[in-house]
Amino acid sequence: MSDAGAAAVTLARPTEAPRRRSALGRLAGGNWLAVAAALALLIAVLAAVLAPWLPLADPDAVDTPHRLRPPLSPGHALGTDEFGRDLLARLVWGARVSLAAGVASAAAAMLIGVTLGILGGFYTGWIETLIMRLTDILMAFPYVLLAIAIVAGLGPGLRNAMVAIAIVGFPLYTRLVRGVVLSLREREFVEAARALGASDAVILGRHVLPHLLSPVIVAFSLDVGAKILATAGLSFLGLGTQPPTADWGSMLATGRQFVILSPHVVLLPGLAIFVIVLALNLVGDALRDVLDPRAAQR
Amino acid sequence: MRRYLARRLLLLVPVLAGVSVIIFMVLHLSPGDPAEIMLGSQATKEDLARLRTDLGLNEPLHVQYLKWIGHVVHGDLGRSLWMKRPVLGEVLTRFRATLLLTATALLLSTIIGVALGVAAATRPNSMLDRLSAVASLFGASMPSFWLGIVLMVVFALQLGWLPASGMYAPHGGGDLRDLLSHLVLPAVTLAAASVTIVARLTRSAMLETLGQDYVRTARAKGVSNRAVVLRHGLSNALVPIVTVVGVQAGYLLGGAVLTETVFAWPGVGTLMVQGILARDFPLVQGCVLIVALSFVLVNLAVDLLYAWLDPRIRYE
């Protein structure tokens, strides 16, 4: 590439490094709620990752004589469930499943959505029509309903639930990214790169992709919480994680029958979902304030 | 307006065609033989062959789709394998219950959400405004099915004020009062998240319109605060509010599945989940079709409402 081309590249690149430093600085400096939320998330992720090495009881070990013990019982800090299984251990192991399912389905939705959004925004003609009509049709369904319908076809199970959630989730990213790409396509630096003979791959990779980072990171950080809620919802309906595997949604579903005797078997997994999703939303909001201040003001 | 309506109805055709293809494909997503999945591993070869013939599974995919859509257009959604009854009648009966629940929740979220949003916008940074911001964050983070269980434990099981589940009392119920008392908890559960979303959007739409020049002019002319907020503010903020209420209608139709399961509400959502667990594909397809169709119609109604509220939209 010529010098002029290199100049165009330099001009086109958003100033990511200083922005990120200021993001971290502002996260740590002013927004204490977001810092607390980030800490809560960090603890949850660490507990989930380190679960096999933590001094926890076997989450699947049945102990019927000690069923439905209240929190702070000897040997069971958070009590036991209807089969006498340790609730703390099941919550921590459940965090592995729930967090991984949320992140994986949001990541899959993001990858599919961003790819289709770039293609739909950059190429006019039948590619754009096909992608946007598919997106329109998927968005013509209520979100949860379509996920349930897809699980109906694939069969209940965590993996299928994640696939379903990723499929119903990608149109959000496609629309977001296409909008940004459509506006970038007409910008001078893209035209300059094209005039200098840069290939589509170079234009997309070097000039378009960096501009997508901020909106996509913000959307993703807010989306993980929504995906955790959706996975938990499917598990609650018996369409996600299957017994005896612990995940927060299925723990809520099975504990529901014992809610009068032992409310903690329902309250604790629900509280875990609530706190984690709240923390994700707070961190997502803080990220948006820093990376996309105009959207935050709206 | 008529031309606009005709154009919108015409645009409905490709969307409905796409929706029907997706619903049809649901049956064919499964990696194995749908007949074997539906009847289970215990089924005899004769049973499998009969079901394949009944559902037309031996024919090419496009032929199967065309036959299926032909039946659907004539109101035939097939027979439920599990209930041994025509799907349409069963789904429509259940859909009435879903519609009642969703409409009540939508009404609640619109009335409370708009009132909260207007109040927050007229007093920015007040305690009410801040509380509404916190509530909106909580609403977006709380699993509705968990909220439903908590409300059920508190108001039905502990305080005994309201019934815990179902649509009517099993003995001696059946009147309007009985129905309304059963409706309160599921409708509040379903509406909770929407209230906060409608309130936040109403607030931002109102703040925008209240900052306009014509509002300042109205105030300068000595128009009362009430008239400024309602006539000049709210009526001009209606288009974005209608948008979010329309989106919420779809969200509530889908989200009703979880609320119905918590409260054993005999709606289309519980029927669909039962259908999935029983591997009754015609029933599941029927449920999805009816809800998706109503969602598309709600979106159409919202579009028409825009055009009525803002005549500029009709001429675009």
At a glance:
The complex is a heterodimer of chains A (298) and B (316). Chain A is an all-alpha fold.
Kindly describe this structure.
- The complex is a heterodimer of chains A (298) and B (316).
- Chain A is built from twelve helices and no strands.
- Chain A has helices at 3-12, 16-29, 32-49, 87-122, 126-138, 143-154, 158-185, 188-195, 200-236, 248-255, 264-291, 293-297.
- Chain A is mainly α.
- The longest helix of chain A is centred in the C-terminal third of the chain and has 37 residues, at 200-236.
- With 316 residues, chain B is mainly alpha-helical.
- In chain B, helix 6 (127-141) packs across helix 8 (176-210) and helix 7 crosses helix 11.
- The radius of gyration of chain B is 24 Å and the shape is globular.
Structural class call of chain A reads: mainly alpha
Q: Spans of chain A of 5+ residues with little confidence (pLDDT < 50)?
A: 1-20
What portion of the residues of chain A fall into strands of 2 or more residues? Answer: under 5%
The strand count of chain A comes to 0
Secondary-structure class of chain B: mainly alpha
Shape, per Cα inertia axes of chain B: globular
**Number of distinct beta strands of chain B:** 0
* Rg from alpha-carbon coordinates of chain B: 24 Å
Task: State the helix count of chain B.
Answer: 13
Average pLDDT of chain B works out at 85
Quick tags:
heterodimer; A: 298 residues; mainly alpha; 0% strand; disordered N terminus; B: 316 residues; 13 helices; globular
Q: What order do the helices and strands come in, and which of them pair?
A:
The complex is a heterodimer of chains A (298) and B (316).
Chain A: H1 3-12, H2 16-29, H3 32-49, H4 87-122, H5 126-138, H6 143-154, H7 158-185, H8 188-195, H9 200-236, H10 248-255, H11 264-291, H12 293-297
Chain B: H1 2-28, H2 34-39, H3 45-55, H4 61-73, H5 87-122, H6 127-141, H7 144-158, H8 176-210, H9 213-220, H10 225-234, H11 238-263, H12 268-277, H13 281-309
